[in-house]
């Protein structure tokens, strides 16, 4: 007797009746043949990419608050580097402006401090309160 007991015989590698058939899945190990353009070529730098003077401009901006004279010098160098390649450098410009302002304020305070010290010394006032 047959082992199928009333069922139809299906040859091997043939779809079974009543079983849904799905499309074959691509082999993940096979090399894909997509038609992507070549990455080589002359493309402009991506947005947010590095350009000469960018990092130095940020450093100059930070130094504008900590040590304005150094911030002034660093921001000027960063601005010059960016200008040479035709790129805008906002942090360098802001750092340069703030460095100049803070340097002028610092010089004014130093002058006022020196004037106050000279005035106190020339007043003849002593620590114990005698003139």
Structural class: mainly alpha
User: What order do the SSEs take from the amino end to the carboxyl end, as H and E?
Assistant: HHH
- What is the number of strand segments? 0
Gyration radius, in Å: 39 Å
Distance between the termini: 135 Å
Mean pLDDT: 80
Main sheet: strands, sense, barrel: none
Structure in words:
- The protein is an all-alpha fold and 131 residues long.
- The chain has a domain at 54-122.
- The chain is built from three helices and no strands.
- The protein is elongated.
- The chain starts with 53 loop residues before the first helix and ends in a 9-residue tail after the last helix.
- The mean pLDDT is 80.
Q: What structural keywords apply?
A:
about 130 residues; mainly alpha; 3 helices; about 0% strand; membrane; transmembrane
In short:
The protein has helices at 54-66, 68-85, 90-122.
Strand and helix layout:
Layout: H1 54-66, H2 68-85, H3 90-122
